[in-house]
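Table S4 entry, Secondary thiamine-phosphate synthase enzyme.
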Amino acid sequence: MATYYDQLILTSNGTRVTYHNITNQIRKIVEKSQITHGICVVSSPHTTCSVVFEEYVHDTDFNGDEYIQVDLNRILNKLIPRQLTESDYLYPGQAHVDFLHGLDDPDYPTDEATILNADAHLRATLFGSSENFVLKDKTLLIGSVGYIYFIDWDQNRVRDRKCNIMIVGD
């Protein structure tokens, strides 16, 4: 049994939901791992990001977002509207704001407007933070139209996001 770990750094655009098609990067990591059969886990450590498996759609809008992503955003905007003020959602409460101000972490700026992202947390909770893929004969079994996407639901600031990849097998 062998284990291989890698990480991608992905930059969000900070003005709308960011979709990263990471399929080819994951395929290269699988190749580097030299593992023939096993499981590939693709995971986000961020509470406002998701990893999803979806069909690749060739048509895009003027932002470069695939039509299925645009459709998904439209549905989610109705179900979980963007948080624009502190009265849109209960989150974040004062105790959480105080906690964040106490962190010594550059990823959490003291500008409270950047944490008005309850919508991003709720969307990430619905979609989850990881996906697992079967690896057979050094190939991800994702079919001919299946692609892997890393999504940053947070629309409040540009920042680098991490995507962890762990491959376990023979």
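The mean pLDDT is 95.
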